[in-house]
Design brief:
single chain, about 170 residues, mainly alpha, Recoverin, domain 1, 2 domains, 3-stranded antiparallel beta sheet, 3 strands, about 5% strand, EF-hand_dom_typ2, KCMF1/Dystrophin
Length: about 170
């Protein structure tokens, strides 16, 4: 948690420079508290870097495609020159991401993760898939992650303004 706190402090300091006045001075404290509640419920003081990265990516303001590519990058393994995501790593990703809705009481069962993993690998003979297959599956908006594109769409509409007047 101490290392993560340092990284978050640096991250939010950079954000303050890019967007002065738009970053809460307690952003590091709040984010660390959220990550701890999601990934360190037993209070060990340890949070997996990959889990924290997945949450930060999911909660970022980036596009869905950029988020999906980043998930792949963090959870993929390299087989020679090709990056692949295994069933086990996909399960880890889905489990990590599902801690986000779980923190507000919208948890998913372990069977949801298994069903989603099975659906992603449906018709695949290999033990791992390439990025395009992974992205294609995510674009189909699997039920286990339906909250992610929904939240993205909600946040995207916050910036919409219409130049209409009502009488």
């Amino acid at each position: 948690e101490q290392q993560l706190s340092g990284m978050l402090t640096e991250l939010f300091q950079r954000a303050r420079l890019e967007k002065p006045g738009q970053v809460d001075p307690r952003a590091t404290e709040f984010t660390l508290s959220l990550l701890t509640a999601m990934y360190d419920r037993s209070g060990t003081g340890c949070i997996k870097t990959r889990s924290a990265a997945a949450a930060l990516i999911a909660l970022s303001g980036d596009t869905l495609l950029a988020k999906y590519r980043a998930f792949f990058q963090f959870y993929a393994v390299t087989d020679g020159k090709v990056a692949l995501i295994t069933r086990s790593n996909l399960r880890s990703l889905l489990t990590d991401l599902n801690q986000i809705p779980a923190i507000v009481g919208e948890s998913c069962t372990l069977s949801c993760v298994e069903i989603a993993t099975h659906n992603c690998f449906h018709g695949v003979l290999n033990s791992a898939i390439v990025e395009e297959k992974f992205l294609s599956w995510l674009r189909s908006e699997p039920a286990v992650l339906l909250w992610l594109p929904t939240c993205y769409r909600l946040s995207a509409t916050e910036m919409v303004s219409h130049q209409a007047r009502c009488r």
